[in-house]
Recover the amino acids of this structure.
């Protein structure tokens, strides 16, 4: 699928790409509403209705991914609540083998994630991914989510990459389209980001489920 001779830099998302999205879906769609209902004395159904609407209002914006923003909005200790579910943080199929193969190659490997820095730290603590990356970047460092067109010039100015010699793998179609508009040459989606959910339609993008489908790396 990939002509590795044309790739200098591999850009990798974290949640739903390297890590199973089940943790995040369970946290935001079930765990947070349960705590919110208890704190504000409402039914779980009422809590979900209110929270899902508030989440949708911020979808694709940096606030949607910002732990500080939601802690202030909801008056909940979200980091402690994340630790309650940390046992669900796990790598997706073939992710570690793929990262190890990249590490043995001459490719530059960069994580670009919308995850808030505190969430990133927790996941790196549980999944031990840091050793495989030359750089790890949260979009919060730039002030723009990856969906935003200004994220990409900020990334280029920061780390100096040639989009025509990049591979970018992400589970979000809006994010992939944003990278495509910026000029990234090779883009791959994830067909099954949540192991407990159904496969997704990745539309115009080629997709993988198990990263070993992309081996070997030359």
């Amino acid at each position: 699928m990939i002509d590795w001779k044309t790739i200098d830099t591999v850009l990798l998302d974290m949640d739903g790409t390297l890590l199973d999205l089940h943790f995040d879906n369970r946290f935001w769609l079930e765990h947070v509403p349960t705590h919110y209902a208890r704190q504000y004395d409402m039914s779980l159904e009422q809590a979900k209705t209110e929270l899902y609407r508030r989440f949708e209002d911020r979808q694709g914006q940096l606030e949607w991914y910002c732990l500080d923003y939601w802690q202030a909005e909801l008056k909940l200790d979200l980091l402690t609540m994340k630790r309650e579910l940390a046992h669900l943080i796990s790598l997706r199929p073939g992710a570690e083998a793929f990262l190890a193969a990249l590490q043995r190659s001459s490719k530059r490997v960069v994580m670009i994630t919308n995850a808030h820095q505190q969430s990133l730290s927790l996941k790196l603590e549980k999944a031990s991914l840091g050793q495989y990356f030359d750089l790890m970047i949260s979009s919060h460092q730039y002030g723009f989510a990856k969906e935003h067109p200004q994220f990409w010039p900020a990334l280029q100015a920061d780390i100096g990459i040639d989009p025509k010699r990049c591979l970018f793998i992400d589970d979000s179609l809006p994010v992939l389209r944003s990278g495509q508009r910026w000029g990234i040459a090779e883009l791959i989606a994830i067909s099954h980001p949540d192991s407990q959910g159904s496969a997704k339609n990745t539309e115009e993008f080629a997709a993988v489920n198990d990263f070993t489908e992309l081996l070997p790396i030359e």
The chain has eight helices and six strands. Helices lie at 22-39, 44-57, 67-74, 78-84, 95-104, 117-127, 151-159, 173-182.
